[in-house]
Amino acid sequence: MLVNHNHELSLRKQCKLLEINRSSLYIKPKGESQENLKLMRTMDKLFLQDPTLGVLGMQHELDDLNLHYNEKRIRRLLRLMAIEPIYPKKNLSRLGKAKYIHPYLLRNLKIERANQVWAIDISYIPMKSGFMYLTAIIDVYSRFIVGWNISNTLDKEIQTTVLLEAIQQYGKPEIINSDQGAQYTSEHWVSTVKSLGIMVSMDGKGRATDNAFIERWFRTVKQKYVYLNPAGNGIDLYLGIKAFILKYNKRKHQGINRRKPVDLYMAA
């Protein structure tokens, strides 16, 4: 542990010196059996390869790996992982969410400047013993990661906290795009975003490309860091992802003509 609870310096000062979030001291991985944790890691890798896999499709893929689990367990764990397959869903009006759903504003939109469009999402992150969730916000024009944090819950307040911290550091976007997850099809998210004078945009259900920029970034961080360096605790995970993001923002990106996200964002 980098932080010593018995040190003469307060925890607040130690965290400030180490540049880590003080809340990460109290983060504990979610409790699941080792068998379920192993199953979740496998399903996450399968989902990255094919984001259309639902419960039955996932069950078939697992069967091919000689991993035999019933639909009930697979469905529960996929929900716990905040994984939603890409396919047309039922009308959400029955769930009382219709009034919070907003149209997708990015179709045919020419994105030509920083802070024009941000995209936000949350993703399951496996650890050695447990898992956590990573929320991240990407500036679509530059591919620069403007905000992120880790948590051990899917609470909707976490999304607005990350957004407000990003705005405090980089200013606010004109549009922010998300999927139609429960965190975003809520009064809390919609009212917060609108109160800031930001336009709300949401993916169309069943569309694989609407929020592709942040989804591709999650695939990158998992394949190039998380799977290769499973964290033992919340602080290790926080520091590791922080280092990865700093490196990512300064690395040349093929999607922006081999420019660096930080250079493109800051120049704009």
TrEMBL record:
InterPro entries given in the database record: HTH-like_dom, Integrase_cat-core, RNaseH-like_sf, RNaseH_sf, Transpos_IS3, Transposase_IS3/IS150/IS904
One Pfam family hit: rve
Residue ranges of domain Integrase catalytic in the record: 110-268
GO MF terms held by the record: nucleic acid binding
Gene3D superfamilies tied to this protein: Ribonuclease H-like superfamily/Ribonuclease H
GO biological process: DNA integration
Domain of life, source organism: Bacteria
PANTHER family, per database record: INTEGRASE PROTEIN, TRANSPOSASE INSF FOR INSERTION SEQUENCE IS3B-RELATED
Protein name in the entry: IS3 family transposase
Organism field: Luteibaculum oceani
Lineage: Bacteria, Pseudomonadati, Bacteroidota, Flavobacteriia, Flavobacteriales
